[in-house]
Amino acid sequence: MMVGRDRELKTLTKLAASDQPKVALIAGEPGIGKTRLINELLTTLPPEQLALVGHAEPGSLSRPYEVLLVIPV
C-alpha cells in the first residue's frame, strides 16, 4: 500500500473506472513517486482494461512532447 498518495490514487481510479476514455498527466519533481503511483493504479485495474502508459526519457526535458510522438516501425 502506498503512503501519502491516497487522494491521487483514488482520483486516478475513478478516471480509470469511467466508461469514457480519459487522459491523466502525472508530473512532478524526480523521486516523488510518480512511477510508484502509476504502478499502484495498474495493479487495481481489471486484466481486460486497456491502459496506455508513457514516460519521458532522461535528457528529453527540452522536448516535452516527445513522449507523444509515434515512431513508425
Write the layout of secondary structure elements.
Blueprint: H1 6-17, H2 34-44
Helix pairs in contact: 1-2
Provide a short characterization of the protein structure:
It contains 2 helices and no strands. With 73 residues, the chain is an all-alpha fold. Helix 1 packs across helix 2.
Strands, total number: 0
Identify the overall geometry: globular
Distance between the termini: 38 Å
Reported for the largest beta sheet, the result is: none
Note the run of SSEs as H and E. HH
Helix content: 25-40%
Number of domains: 1
Question: What is Rg?
Answer: 14 Å
β content, as a range?
under 5%
The average pLDDT value, as a whole number, equals 80
Structural class by secondary-structure content: mainly alpha
Specify the number of helices. 2
- List unreliable stretches of 5+ residues: none
Structure commentary:
The protein is 32% helix and 0% strand. With 73 residues, the chain is mostly helical. The chain has one domain. It is globular, with a radius of gyration of 14 Å.
Could you list some keywords that capture this structure?
globular, single chain, mainly alpha, 73 residues
